[in-house]
Amino acid sequence: MAGGNEVQYPPRVSHQNEANIVRYIQDWSLANGLVLLSGELNGSGIPAPVTVFPSPFSKSAFNEALLVQKGYNDIYHEIVKDEQWLLKELSELGKYDPDFTGRLLDIHLRVQREGPSQSLTGGLFRSDYIIHSNSDKSGGQIKQVEFNTVSVSFGGLSSKLSELHNYLVAADVYNLSIQGLPALDKNSIPISKSLVKLSSSLAEMHKAYITREGRDQGTAILFVVQPGERNALDQRLLEFELFNSHGIKSYRLTLEHARTKLTKTTSGSSKLLKHVASDSEISVVYYRSGYGPSDYPTEREWSARYFLENSHAIKCPSVLTQLSGAKKIQQLLTDTPIFNRFAKFSKSTLEDSLVLEAKGTETIDTKDFLLKKILDTFVKIYPLDESERGLEARKLAFDSPEKFVLKPQREGGGNNVYRRNIPSFLTSIPKKNWGAYILMELIEPAENKNKILRMGEVYSGNVVSELGVFGGVLWDTKTGESYLNSNSDWLLRTKLETSDEGGVAAGFGCIDSVYLV
Ligand code: ADP
Ligand code: MG
Ligand code: MG
């Protein structure tokens, strides 16, 4: 921060000043769509929970998270390409979890047997990191929390909040210069272009579809959404951007209604997906739902997922790509031979990593350089099965649980078991099911102080932040070619340190932006 370490952060502001800042945040949020739906009154929204100030974040750690994104996208491409390997691992998981992972896997296998009609497959990913404070590196080392391959959220709202924080500084709403306090520098609050970049990736998928089909008339993207979604405007922002910048129309449907509102027509060997009411042909099925058991309350939703998977539309993501984001796969990647098998990078990934690092090509081996950067983001993750490492981990889970988090193969927050709760949790379930979990070392985040504005109330205290970097991909499963590999900017989420998890929609955390220091 400007002026050195002794300077207080966030800056001390008077009650009156804070009330004014809060008012600006609320009004700007409502005026610009930094909003969650209220969930109570139909058609009304409330400002999204946000930090009052951007949180200080190490510039070098931030750059490293951006630098490795394309490399991670490539690694997941290699994993999905190696279908045999992936299916073997996933079918193990399916045995522990037949009603969810197992059923998704069945859908994939069934569509494979029937002969998939679309070889292009897309993904919007997000790799999440916490800065590990206990490291030799100045500014701390980013450590990966998880790699998400389905329904990643807040790409829309993240752009909005970095714009808002930037505005509050630029227009001196914080009123710091008047009080003679060290000013925040707006140039150190970069604006995340995630909204524009994620929309562009979806547009690329759409364009690839219509180019191959040779027709453009009446094609549209389908957003598969959850019923009653409070974070719908984060999705709407993508929908509006798709239309405004790319002229692409979108529709929104829940899995519940997909079967009745959509139909399929056969054209040669292709099962074209059509939106009944508009007769639009669906180019891309973009999932903002379907990642957890609660998205499939009845057979209707399962049947819809199969119906979509078995269509000619490009799936973002396919069932297989979704499952490649399992925490078990992340654990397996920390195994050196497995990592080496999948750590292959395209030329453009290697070149870009150098540009981000601002280094010349002549001095370093680019592949080694990127490999090391990615390996630096790993913490130890153990299986809990009956392998040698699994048995070692079982001992660790009981001897020193305070160092670990236990994770099932689930997404969306609220599913993990922390620290001292691990032993009693494990003893409460049959030992034969332990292999369904992974045991991960806890990352020790650096603490900052900040203020969180949620539902009109300001909460002050120690906070910890998690940085997510978005990625966009488009692969051809037949040829193994990659048509898109993008680094799509970032999201910062922040929570009060007293809460183990930081889900914004789940009510634990809020959206933040980075103040690079
Ligand atoms: P989900 O897919 O449900 O989001 P995550 O792996 O992201 O699961 O875990 C949820 C939250 O738990 C994270 O956002 C983070 O706050 C916390 N968490 C997960 N893994 C770790 C870890 N290794 N160290 C510290 N906190 C963690
Ligand atoms: Mg996740
Ligand atoms: Mg997460």
Count of distinct structural domains: 2
Principal-axis shape? globular
Which structural class is indicated by helix and strand composition? alpha+beta
Task: Quickly count the helices.
Answer: 17
Give me the Rg, rounded. 23 Å
Q: Which molecules other than protein and nucleic acid are bound?
A: adenosine-5'-diphosphate, magnesium ion
Determine the fraction of residues in helical runs and give it as a percent range. Answer: 25-40%
Number of strands: 21
**Percent of residues in β-strands:** 25-35%
Average pLDDT metric: 93
Largest sheet: 7 strands, antiparallel
Question: Can you give me a brief rundown of this structure?
Answer:
Its EC number is 6.3.2.3. The protein is an alpha+beta fold and 517 residues long.
